[in-house]
Specification:
Helix content is 29%, strand content 17%. By secondary structure, it is α/β, with parallel strands linked by helices. The longest helix has 18 residues, at 247-264.
Length: 399
């Protein structure tokens, strides 16, 4: 079993014969090098660098999911919406159980409450934080604990990190479990690979990498949306900060993250980054706005224009659920992306040729000027999780 210290990112494996954990070094092909040091048993909940370890990460394998995107891409909203959908979707409830880690419970409760109250998380504002602080203060006033005080020996000493939200997933079929560590990695300065390495070191050990690209990336189509949208939707579309991400910066972001990941994992420059070492997907966020565009793919990718006004039905979450249907929708979304912002798809294909697309609306509607939403009705938020769980061998029986 492999796990990782979510603070300093040291990787561990469990030696069943000795009933102890030891440090490992990841090899280029995704395997693990020989034992480096046997250092603790389960009763000593500190890693070799002195970090406190979340006990749940020693009970089950841990998968790190990194969300990459600019502040305006709604990463924080997506993480909260996806976890909420996981826990409340009747289709998933027949297959999995989802439990938030006790160490993540207070943060999760505060974030979920804001969205359920239809209040924006305001992640697009500046981050008021310095490396000397012990807490990360979000613009919406929620304190996110920073890393523990550590010795200067480890690779990330003194650097800002965002604390993951950890959820344990139990498979009812195989009775196995894994931890999912959702990380909202830095977006404001992600086009600078060196800065990204400092504020988002979790990228180096991510098992799943999700790029978040807003549907309003193409400003010509954004102008079209603004012209033909209903007055209530125009209020959201006029928000310059909310729709500030551009195609040029997105391409640079993807390229920089690929270079950062290759350097951190000693991965050859000319080889494509592929599974099973890391699974890469792209979430087309704010997909509810795509219904304003007259293209054939939109009918399969975006919710109807009346989505926010209609009742929640048995499949009201807008998910495909079935893996073959998810793959079909991914191909349709790719076709749409090739029309809206083709350079983004080209850049992704160069570095991550096995990239999948997921259209998601974290809230189901646009944000008002006062920072609230008319409703909270996510669209397609469970499908990325369904696909991810299908890719995790540790959840399958007989593995």
């Amino acid at each position: 079993m492999r796990t990782v210290c979510l603070n300093c990112l040291t990787e561990f494996r469990f030696d069943r014969d000795r009933d102890r954990w030891y440090t490992v070094i990841r090899q280029r092909n995704g395997g693990y090098a020989k034992q480096i040091e046997t250092y603790f048993d389960k009763l000593n909940l500190r890693c070799p660098k002195g970090c406190d370890i979340d006990p749940v990460t020693l009970d089950h394998p841990t998968k790190v999911i990194g969300f990459v995107g600019e502040s305006a891409s709604s990463k924080s909203h997506l993480i909260v919406s996806m976890i909420h959908s996981m826990m409340n979707d009747p289709h998933l409830a027949g297959r999995y159980s989802f439990i938030v880690s006790p160490k993540s419970a207070s943060l999760w409760t505060a974030l979920e409450a804001r969205l359920l109250n239809r209040r924006a998380l305001d992640a697009t504002g500046p981050r008021r934080v310095t490396v000397a602080q012990t807490q990360h203060i979000r613009p919406d006033g929620i304190a996110m604990p920073q890393q523990q005080a550590q010795s200067q020996g480890h690779a990330w000493a003194g650097l800002e990190q965002r604390k993951p939200l950890v959820v344990t997933v139990y498979s009812l079929q195989s009775t196995r479990a894994v931890n999912l560590a959702f990380v909202d990695v830095a977006g404001e300065d992600i086009t600078d690979g060196a800065v990204a390495a400092r504020v988002s070191p979790h990228l180096a050990v991510a098992d799943f990498l999700w790029f978040v690209v807003p549907s309003t990336l193409n400003k010509q189509y954004l102008a079209y949306m603004q012209q033909y949208a209903e007055p209530a939707v125009q209020e959201s579309l006029r928000n310059a900060v909310e729709h500030s991400q551009t195609i040029g910066r997105t391409n640079l972001m993807i390229d920089q993250i690929a270079k950062l990941w290759r350097a951190a994992n000693s991965y050859p420059e000319r080889l494509p980054i592929e599974p099973p070492r890391v699974h890469v997907s792209t979430i087309i966020a704010k997909s509810d706005l795509l219904s304003l565009i007259d293209l054939p793919e939109v009918r399969s990718v975006a919710p109807p224009s009346t989505w926010a006004d209609g009742p929640i039905s048995a499949n009201g979450a807008g998910n495909a659920y079935d893996p073959p249907l998810i793959m079909d929708r991914s191909q349709t979304t790719k076709s749409l992306v090739r029309k809206l912002f083709p350079l983004v798809d080209t850049t992704l294909s160069i570095h991550f040729p096995w990239n999948l697309y997921f259209p998601v609306s974290a809230v189901g509607c646009g944000k008002r000027d006062d920072g609230t939403y008319p409703v909270f009705k996510p669209y397609g938020a469970a499908d990325p999780v369904v696909y991810m769980l299908e890719m995790i061998d540790e959840l399958k029986a007989g593995r």
